[in-house]
Amino acid sequence: MQQNTVDLWDQGWAPLYDDMDNVRSPNQHTAFYVGLVTPGTGSLLDLGSGTGSITAPVVEKMREGGADRPAVGVDLAPAMVELAAARYPAIDWRLGDIKCPPVAPEERFDLVICCFHTMQALRTEADMAESLSNIRDALAPDGRFAFDIYQPNRAYLAKAAAGGLEDGRVVREFSDRTGRRLRVREYSTYDPETLLFSGTWYLHDGVTDARLPLEPMDQTLRQYFASDMERLLADAGLQIVERYGDLDRSPFTPEAKRQVIVCGQG
């Protein structure tokens, strides 16, 4: 994951993370990942766990039977790890990269998850391959790995590559925990050679639209097509057992918004 993004989460964006996500689909994400828990789910590894907004309800579902089942959340941003640890101290929060998660060789997990298209922060196929190999090694024999990424929208990406996206378009409008209205404006580009979509976010007042004194956030997402993921997963020894077009478990089609994939060891 890009270091600049990590630094900016630490410098002031992290406290806004959950508020911004409330305008996306946190309930859909929560419902999908909680729905993966079965009576046999005895351990969890959440990669790119952020503030723990998905980790915590998954762990709660796991522990409904009363067992104190091990759960680990991993994030590269210290501010995210600190927020998660303050909110959910019973979970083992660790600072680390999803490419090489900080888990011991003997640790094995029944469920590994990576939410909110975080796998797309892996900018190259080599990085993705390394991450998937390490995830496979962290799975228990009957364990499952579930993640969601965006399905590349070819028309949208072509428009971005041609400079046709509106500069400063609003991509988030939300209220923070004090009730202050905020909006995020984005300037973005796409490189069809590297398959990297890069967006720079600026925070604005939601009423006056004045830009606020917070350093802009750069985020870059690698675009992975369905055929790419099929090949990379197979090469890592992972087998797709479920695939959906969105978090509501709708069928996966070429027009689907997302690739939502559940894997087991191949």
**Uncertain regions: pLDDT < 50 for 5+ in a row?**
none
Percent of residues in helices comes to 25-40%
Give a short account of the largest sheet: 7 strands, mixed
First-residue to last-residue Cα separation: 27 Å
pLDDT averaged residue by residue:
92
Give the strand order of the largest sheet, numbering strands 1, 2, ... along the chain: 3-2-1-4-5-11-10
The shape is globular
CATH architecture of the largest domain: 3-Layer(aba) Sandwich
CATH top-level class of the largest domain: Alpha Beta
According to CATH, the homologous superfamily of the largest domain is Vaccinia Virus protein VP39
Please compute the radius of gyration using only Cα atoms.
18 Å
Q: Give helix and strand order, one letter per element, not per position.
A: HHHEHEHEEHEHEEEEHEE
Tell me the CATH topology of the largest domain. Rossmann fold
Strand content: 25-35%
Number of domains: 2
Number of helices: 8
Overall structural class, as computed from helix and strand content, comes to alpha/beta
Q: What is the number of beta strands?
A: 11
